[in-house]
Amino acid sequence: MKGPYSGLWFLLTVGFAIFFVASAFGGIKLGEIELETTQMYAELTKSHEPVAPVVQEITTESVEVESVVVEEPRYIIDTTPQRILFVGDSMLESLSPRVAAYAKHNGHKLHTVIWYGSTTKAWGTCEKLAGYIAKYNPTFIIVSLGGNEMFVRDIKTRHLEPLKRILEQIGDIPYQWIAPPNWKPDTGINELLAENIPANRLFVSKDLTLARASDKIHPTRVAAYGWFDLIVEWMAENQDYRIKLDKPEVQTSKPDTLEAMAPPQ
Amino acid sequence: MTLSTLWANILEKLAYDPQSPMIFSSGTFWALFLLFMPIYALLKRSRMKMVLYVVAFSLYFYYKSSGIFFLLIIATSIIDYLLSLLLAKREKEWQRKLCVLLSVCISLGVLGYFKYANFIMASWADIVGSNFQPLDIILPVGISFYTFQSISYIVDVYRRRIEPTDSWLEYIFFLSFFPALVAGPIVRADHFLPQIKANRVPERSEVWMGFWLILLGIIKKALLADYIAQYNDIVFTTPETYTGFENLMAMFGYTMQIYCDFSGYSDMAIGIALIMGFTLPQNFNLPYKSQNVTEFWRRWHISLSSWLRDYLYIPLGGNRKGKVRTYLNNFITMLIGGLWHGASWKFVAWGGFHGVALITHKASQPLLSRIPDTRIVKFVSWLVTICFVIFTMAIFRVNVLGDLWVMLENIFTNFHLDYLPVFVDVRLTWCIFMLVLIVSHAVPDGWWQRLGERFAEWPWIVKLIIFVVVVQLVLQFRSEDVAPFIYFQF
Predict the structure, then answer these.
(1) Are the Cβ atoms of A252 and B399 closer than 8 angstroms?
(2) What is the pTM for the complete model shown?
(3) Rounded distance, CA B379 to CA B84, Å?
(4) Does the beta-carbon distance from B37 to A218 stay under 8 Å?
(5) Class for domain A76-261, per CATH?
(6) Cβ under 8 Å to B: A residues 21-50
(7) Residues A91-105, buried b or exposed e (16+ Cβ, 10 A)?
């Protein structure tokens, strides 16, 4: 190509080639800094073949029925890429970057929806969750709620119906509920959650010792990363629907989408 | 990886995806532009082939951004072109006016339906107290920009400032020219149509100047604006949970973000056009240097403000019908200018504030002209102007107008300068980026242009290194988190 364009075209081509090659190899370091790369190579080489779910029976328990031993699976591992919907209150501020790192590392899509100051009552008396489920069509849901209702009186009766409504909206989609990390004894939120959410889907955080931010309420970001690591370890042992959550090399990442809502009125 | 996989992925990238519209800072655009350039250079020798090729690429660009709505711009262009031909052949004034009226009504009707139908119906429902279910209307990208271009074309033909284009292809070239299609600058027919006819091959220095503008645009949009936005978004989402100092920083940050975002995109558009041998009008000229709001509008979104002046303010009577009418015309122009930005009362309010400010500035001219133009006066003028601009930009950004009062209340009742050192410590990169922007505004007018001219003369390898560094910086900062809560870092 002659004329005024040759220099620029050649420059753009070389530049493009540099970033393409970098994206193919990845992990390039400049001193202590790891250089970020584009997704060019990954996007051009990604497979379109449908991935069959790998369902692994890890353990079984024996149940005797009329002298016949039936092997009943207690849980499964689904290694396919998931669409994870992560909803909850302001605790997501610090949890989401860590969840995003796990999601990215394991090939999942993560959609985070933070509703500041929200409660089970707020989520359970509206159709927002159903709306987000319709919008993102998640294959796995993580809920972190309860931090804003530590001191609600009669919570076990007043917030029971909203909690049930949340679970109805989740329906058959596998989920993980992260109970609040108490900074003071609560008036029953943890009991309410424990009574209504299967034990293999509820991570109880109330007895954890977490470094807190200056508000003495929210865990510090670093503490929150450790908190989620514990949750992942717990899920690997207890969840009844286990998705691929290998520990990422990077500490944080960004969700694929992030939506934030102002506190409920 | 098989060839079929590669091919399937390429096809997927080339197809319309509503989640990732084509923008200049995307890798897909640059890959396509790499393919576009050599063919463009080859076809540039023949004007007709060049026009055909660019129209095809522009329509594809629009398809990638708005899907099936690329048919809308084709339909608009056919109607406008036929009406302009009809208009040019008519001698009777009422027939000519009818052609203009018809064209403008169709253009504004389409814009009104897509952009304002829900807003108007929701406002009406509010007034009469009824329920309203929003219609499922998708706003085609860039419709506000090309609608104004089509109006300027038909009006200019009516005013006999230009002749109708020789062919429909030339007209759709003007209307759909991809560098300016989705976010301006708003191109005027009298400025652009002669360039199509001239089909000028750019000088090598112009090509590099265009590349320089693209680099500036990438830095502004993909590096600075996108990074600064992370903090601003957090505060603007729940301003009541932040201190006055943090709210003020978010307002200040958003003022810089919107400038970088919009002017960065304009720079890229102007740069790409320049590479292709076309000059687009300057859209921003260091607006935050302005010492009054009138000057601000001469430096901010220049292609829109000049369009509003020529096709709205002056036809309304401009300053020819006395002081009161001048002020009223100013106010109406700014209200409509505000509404052009979006279908929401906050944009109307934004326009209204600017209208009042322009009127106040005009009305106080006799008084202001008596004040000596000392450095202190200049500084105070700048300070008042920038505070007003920061305030009005916040109107632009808040989710609901009530949030603006929350922010102001926090700033005036919960402001502690003690936050400054902590803020700088926690958000050092954010502060550095803001400082870079302030310094970039402090340089004399024309400095960036001169730097661009020098850049054009630098060795090829230096330019390559700068390009790679800029793109790598974008990649590095794209993945870096901004701490959402300042007290997390204490």
Answers:
(1) no
(2) 0.72
(3) 49
(4) no
(5) alpha beta
(6) 33, 35-38, 40, 43-48
(7) bbbbbbbbbbbbbbb
